[in-house]
Amino acid sequence: MHTKNYLLLLAIVCLYACGSPSTPEEQAETTPPTISTAFADQFVVGAALGVSHINGTDTLGQALVAREYNTITPENMMKWEEINPRPGVFNWADPDAFVAFGEENDMFIVGHALVWHSQLSDYVKEITDPELLLAEMKTHIDAVAGRYKGRIDGWDVVNEALNEDGSLRESHFYKVLGEDYLTEAFKMAAAAAGPETKLYYNDYNMWNADKREGAIRMIEKIRANGGRVDGIGMQAHYSVAGPSIDTIEQSIVAYEKAGLPIMMTELDVTVLPNPWDLVGAEVSQNFENSPYMNPFPDALPDSMQTVLADRYEDLFRLYLKHADNIERITFWGVNDGHSWLNGWPISGRTNYPLLFDRSYQKKPVYDRVLSLNPDGKKSGNYNYQKQANEVN
Question: Staple 193 to which of 110, 161, 197, 378, CB 3.0 to 4.6 Å?
C-alpha cells in the first residue's frame, strides 16, 4: 500500500477508535470551576485591582484575576487625585493598561469613581466659584469617562455622598454647588460615557435603614431632575460579627422595591477587632496599633478560618437568594496581602478578609463559597469540590 494511503487509513482508524473531540459542553464539565464560572448564570464576580496587577509587577495576582474573575474595578488609579492631579493634567498610562487588561480577558469593566469628596485633587478644593467648579467637574468627567466611552461598561459616578442619617454629606461639591451637583454629575456622565454604559451611585453602610432611605430619596430626586441612575453599589465592608444577614436583606429588598438593580461592591470581611465601635468606612480615620487590635500577626487560626467561611457562606446564600436583582459582586482586593484593611482603621495590622491568602492560594472560604449551588444550598457534588480544590 502506498505510504500516504496507509497513513490516511491509520488516521481514520485512530479517529474512530479514540472517539471524536469533546464538545464544548463536555469540556466545560471537566474544567475546574472558578468563582466567576460557578455563578455565571447569577451575576458577574470580580475584584478591585491595584497598579501592580496591570503593570507587570504582580504577575501572580494578575494571573489569579484572569483565571477567577469576569469583572474588574480600579482600586485607586482612576480617582481624581490619581488620574487628574492638576488642571489639564491626566495620568493615562495605568488606567489605559487597566482597561486593556479587562478587554483582553473579556471582562465587565467598571470605572471608579468620577465624583468623590475624598482623594480629591487639591486644585479642585480651591475652586469656590460655583460656575468654575461645575465647569471643572464637566472637564474632568468629559475627559475621563469620554476617553473610555464604549470600553468601560459601568461607572461609579458619585461615591459616598451621604451621612449615616441619610442626609447629604457637606462635601466640597455640596458646599459650593448644593445638592444639584448630584444630578449634574449623572447628566455629565451619561453624555460622556454614552447610553450603553451603566451609571451607579456607590456608598458604604447601605444596610443602615436611615442611610438606605436617604439614598432612595436622593436617587429618586436625581431621576426626577433628568439624571440617569442605573443601579446602586452597596459597599460590603463587613466583619465576621455584623451586620446581620437579616439587616442586609432588608436593604436589598428595599432597593429592589425602589427599582434599583444592586451591585455588591467592595466586598471584604474583617476578622480583626473594631476599635471603639467604629462605624463606616471613612478613609481619614486611623488609630495607633496595639497587640490586642492585631491578634493574628503571623497566621489566621483554623478556628477563625471556619468563622470566616461561615460568614461568606451566609453572605453568598443571601446574594443567590436575590440574584434576580443583584448584577455584580466585587471583592475589594485580590488577596489578603492586597487589602486596604491591613492599614485601616489601624495601620500595620495583618488582616485576612478575602478568599485568597498572601501566597495567592485558596483559603477554606473559597471552597465553601464554591460549594453553593444557584439556590444557595450545598451542591453535594463532591467531584465539583474536588475539581475546585485542584485549581492551581
Answer: 197
On the question of pLDDT at 170 being above 60, the answer is: yes
Residue with cell string 443602615 = 208
Tell me how far apart the alpha carbons of residues 65 and 163 are, in angstroms, rounded to a whole number.
33
Residue 298, burial from CB neighbour count under 10 angstroms (0-12, 13-18, 19+):
exposed
Query: Which helix (H) or strand (E) is 238 found in, with range?
Result: strand 231-239
Q: What is the amino acid identity at position 234?
A: M
Separation of alpha carbons 123 and 260, rounded Å: 34
Q: Report pLDDT for 22.
A: 53
For residue 210, what pLDDT band results from cuts at 50, 70 and 90?
very high
pLDDT digits (tens, 9 = 90+) for 368-381: 999 997 666 665 43
User: Rounded CA gap, 31 and 14, in Å?
Assistant: 25
- Return the closest-CA partner of residue 36 out of 104, 103, 105: 105
Which are the catalytic amino acids?
A: 160, 266
What would the grid cell of residue 67 be? 483565571
Three-class secondary structure of residue 113 per DSSP: strand
Q: H or E element: which one contains 306?
A: helix 302-321
336: nearest Cα among 361, 371, 304: 361
